[in-house]
């Protein structure tokens, strides 16, 4: 492995996890009773806008259960309304900027961003470009540390120009840079699509990694993930604290596990 962490190449998860990914996702989807319990015990939201971005080759249909959960908690949860996510394209990135601006102007307050897989990378870059409009970012199984550390890019190769992702050191270095807004990266060591190590945020103020045990495809509706998201969105704006710690708790541990 290269000694320079900016050039780290992690690689996709084991094929064994990939092989059982869809079976585990169906099990995660079936946990409706647990999702309802979380919705009942979660504190009501403050009504601010939440923009939810789908993963590669997915659209707003995939995030509908998550948005319904957030609307039940009184958040104004919105899809990205850009069809299927086929990777970065200039026209979609401009449209995403416009959507964030409209939500910000409509509510007169900052917008929370939630992104699943590639959608989480989009959410991070949207927050990087417009930190004044973003309240916080939650990513789910997003390989911003090494975007090539996923089986998805083998099926749909994402390239910047003609350079393979695993060789594009400038892109890797850029994507893993910390943001100026609070960030939570949710990851699973049993993720069959994205290698969990590629989802880890560097330690620092107002950023954290939260571990859950679920499939990649099931993250958008897994009870443990929903519980983390509800907790993160429920913090008063400007009063961020690590997951599982009371307000004012010193940020001594950026790696936490959701029960």
Describe this structure in words.
The chain has 259 residues and is an alpha/beta fold. The protein has one domain: Rossmann fold (3-Layer(aba) Sandwich). It has nine helices and seven strands, in the order H-H-H-E-H-E-H-E-H-E-H-H-E-E-H-E. It has helices spanning 15-19, 21-29, 32-41, 60-72, 90-107, 118-129, 152-155, 169-175, 223-233, and strands at 49-53, 76-78, 111-116, 134-140, 183-188, 207-212, 255-257. A seven-stranded parallel beta sheet has the order 2-1-3-4-5-6-7, with helices on both faces. Helix 3 (32-41) packs parallel to helix 9. The longest helix has 18 residues, at 90-107. Residues 1-6 and 251-255 have low confidence and may be disordered.
Fold topology:
Elements: H1 15-19, H2 21-29, H3 32-41, E1 49-53, H4 60-72, E2 76-78, H5 90-107, E3 111-116, H6 118-129, E4 134-140, H7 152-155, H8 169-175, E5 183-188, E6 207-212, H9 223-233, E7 255-257
Parallel strand pairs: 1-2, 1-3, 3-4, 4-5, 5-6, 6-7
Supply the key terms:
single chain; 259 residues; alpha/beta; Rossmann fold; 7-stranded parallel beta sheet; 34% helix; globular; disordered N terminus
Brief account:
With 259 residues, this protein is α/β, with parallel strands linked by helices.
Number of helices: 9
What percent of residues are in strands?
5-15%
Main beta sheet strand tally, sense and closure:
7 strands, parallel
- Rg calc: 17 Å
Secondary-structure element order, N to C: HHHEHEHEHEHHEEHE
The name of the CATH architecture is 3-Layer(aba) Sandwich
Label the overall shape. Answer: globular
| Strand arrangement in the largest pleated sheet | 2-1-3-4-5-6-7
Return the domain count.
Answer: 1
> What would you give as the CATH superfamily?
Alpha/Beta hydrolase fold, catalytic domain
Binned, the helix content reads 25-40%
- Return the average pLDDT rounded to an integer: 84
Q: Which CATH class applies here?
A: Alpha Beta
Task: Please mark out the parts with pLDDT under 50 across 5 or more consecutive residues, or reply none.
Answer: 1-6, 251-255
State the secondary-structure class: alpha/beta
Number of strands: 7
Please give the alpha-carbon distance between the first and last residues.
33 Å
What is the CATH fold-level name? Rossmann fold
């Amino acid at each position: 492995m290269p000694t320079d962490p900016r050039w780290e190449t992690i690689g996709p998860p084991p094929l064994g996890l990939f092989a059982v990914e869809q079976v585990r996702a169906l099990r995660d989807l079936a946990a409706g009773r647990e999702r309802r319990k979380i919705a009942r015990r979660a504190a009501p939201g403050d009504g601010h806008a939440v923009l939810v971005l789908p993963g590669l080759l997915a659209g707003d249909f995939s995030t509908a259960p998550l948005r319904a959960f957030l609307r039940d908690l009184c958040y104004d949860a919105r899809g990205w309304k850009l069809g299927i996510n086929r990777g970065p394209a200039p026209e979609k990135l401009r449209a995403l900027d416009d959507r964030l601006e409209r939500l910000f102007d409509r509510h007169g307050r900052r917008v929370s961003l939630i992104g699943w897989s590639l959608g989480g990378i989009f959410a991070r870059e949207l927050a990087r470009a417009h930190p004044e409009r973003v309240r916080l970012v939650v990513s789910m199984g997003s390989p911003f540390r090494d975007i090539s550390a996923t089986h998805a890019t083998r099926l749909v190769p994402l390239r910047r120009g003609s350079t393979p992702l695993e060789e594009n050191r400038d892109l890797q270095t850029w994507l893993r840079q910390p943001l100026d807004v609070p960030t939570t990266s949710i990851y699973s060591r049993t993720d069959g699509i994205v290698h969990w190590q590629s989802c880890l945020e560097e330690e620092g103020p107002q950023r954290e990694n939260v571990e859950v045990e679920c499939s990649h495809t099931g993250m958008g509706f897994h009870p443990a993930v929903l519980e983390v998201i509800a907790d993160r969105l429920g913090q008063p704006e400007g009063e961020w604290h690590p997951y599982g710690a009371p307000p004012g708790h010193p940020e001594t541990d950026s790696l936490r596990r959701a029960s």
